[in-house]
Design goal:
Blueprint (H helix, E strand, L loop, with lengths): L3 H9 L7 H10 L9 E2 L10 E5 L14 E2 L6 H12 L7 E5 L11 H6 L1 H10 L5 E5 L1 H13 L1 H5 L3 E5 L12 H21 L4
Parallel strand pairs: 1-3, 2-4, 2-5, 5-6
Amino acid sequence: MSDPTFRAEQEAGRYAAHVRPVNELVDSLRDEHRGWMPHVAPLHGGIGAGVLSVLRDPGPATQDGSGSGFLCIENDDPTAERQLEMFDEVGVTPGDITPWNAYPWYINAAPKAAQLDAGVEPLVALLDLMTNLRAVFLQGNDARNGWSRLVKRYPDRARKVETVIATFHPGRQALFHPDPDVRRSRVEHRAAAYRELAGALDRG
């Protein structure tokens, strides 16, 4: 997103056909009560993506002005960079993915239980828009907790998802542990989850 040409392309495609329904959903969810949330960059697959990738909450690199204004794997932050590397290693492209968050509004903090509850309805609405969904990829505890809430509230909708894969958050903090064996195990778990995701898309 630091490349002006690339960023201009993303801004110009904000309501391209494959992301229009997603970004119109975002528009409908922005309000005075919960606040702002970023659009999904048209680099991603939008409603045609095979993967819905869920993290915790939008980070600073997604903000309008100081950031890109988009959820995008090309944002200028270490988490996006690491994701891009790991997806690339297993042959999953940005177009295979639609990024989202367990709490999709911007808070830049760990969501509380009530906020994870509030994130369920937007997540269900997004699932219903995605016409080619093969897998939900849950990265981190908050993503897993948000999905668990959806499963309890909408079990029939959750069962329609072919594959649900859960692993650690791609950020460096997810690996922090005093025991090197635990750190190694987390790295291996995350790598295996990305390979499993590629397999769900017939890429592995």
